[in-house]
């Protein structure tokens, strides 16, 4: 009996450590993995966000090699450290790394709306959807939507004024999420989500649950990432059925209302109606388009706005300089036109610097779809099909090799067109890079900059002591860059009542 137990334990140990020399055999430097925990122990145990494990490896190896091998539980991964190799993965050799890691995990039957997000689509289906969505973000269409965003910005300002009278700090992420929920609901469905007037508006509550992690999915994701053979055995549903049904019904109601009232409005829903008439797309496809717009425009933009407000509140010099630029470029009504908003240089610099320090997605994971070589400075590795490649956006953004005093919030580093150089070198990637760059980037920039400009124009912002600072810590279980404890700010109105 003891012998059998010993044999079983030995087999389990051999299975768990089978790939531990995978990278050594290929001449690729790698840390020493631990049984079951691999090289990402804190991310696995959820004691810290996985990006901190990756950060330690990045810092230990960045001056020695352009890439480093890792083990996630027992599965080989490749961490890219050199921007030129990052450019290979995202741009030059895009066809060899064209899938996101979640592609094989998402169940198209259980998650028909989530599975249709362009981020998860493959090959021809992705190309077709990209071609469908791109025209929705033309300058003319965004310009038509801008007055809606201005109106909702005014609602947000009124809300902050009323809440500030309570002498309590506000969670900047919650304020930003209310704003982006109202914006995308109005621009997509043509309805007011009433996030600033209702205690718990239904659209806001349902929106929260789209990417909300739950224990069951966290466990399933761990198993799927650590034991690839289990991917086809498990069924992971990211979007709950009631959330899916809610948004499908919302789209149906919006369509019915628009057709019955013969409403013509050049927004995203109008674009989807045109797609239906032109290509005869199904109701499910229409709903998936609206959900892609909603989830992409709501979640990441609110994270971006909240971090920008935090940094502005923490830097009086920057805040004063930005407010001065905004005030000087307002029209007689005290508003900023669409054309002016897109051309405010210091607002651009402030927002880009915030995205550098706090990218909504701290890491990109790409799956190798066909064997290829990656090479830099005489060092080469053959990446086999199925190997996932990690691109550590946060670490690259905060690397002193590319940015002077990288931990400092200094918007002027993006002055004089410097952003083009950062983008070209793949050392600034808040929206990704290459063919898979975020399709809604232009809309995201418009709504985030409109929100920041409106708030800075109307309030003096400061960081409340309730914010767990020094340093800010990323939530261990969050899929995007959300900080533990929230970013709490005080707002002092600059307008005389």
Automatic annotation (TrEMBL):
GO cellular component: endoplasmic reticulum membrane
Required co-factors: heme
Principal subcellular localization: endoplasmic reticulum
PROSITE patterns documented for this protein: CYTOCHROME_P450
Classification via InterPro entries: Cyt_P450 (IPR001128), Cyt_P450_CS (IPR017972), Cyt_P450_E_grp-I (IPR002401), Cyt_P450_sf (IPR036396), Insect_CytP450_Detox (IPR050476)
Subcellular location: Endoplasmic reticulum membrane; Microsome membrane
Superkingdom of this protein's organism: Eukaryota
Protein residues bound to heme: 438
Keyword field: Endoplasmic reticulum, Heme, Iron, Membrane, Metal-binding, Microsome, Monooxygenase, Oxidoreductase
Bilayer disposition of the protein: Peripheral membrane protein
GO terms assigned for molecular function: heme binding; iron ion binding; monooxygenase activity; oxidoreductase activity, acting on paired donors, with incorporation or reduction of molecular oxygen
CDD domains assigned to the protein according to its UniProt record, in alphabetical order: CYP6-like
Role played: May be involved in the metabolism of insect hormones and in the breakdown of synthetic insecticides.
Record family assignment: Belongs to the cytochrome P450 family.
Name by which UniProt lists this protein: Cytochrome P450
UniProt source species: Chironomus riparius
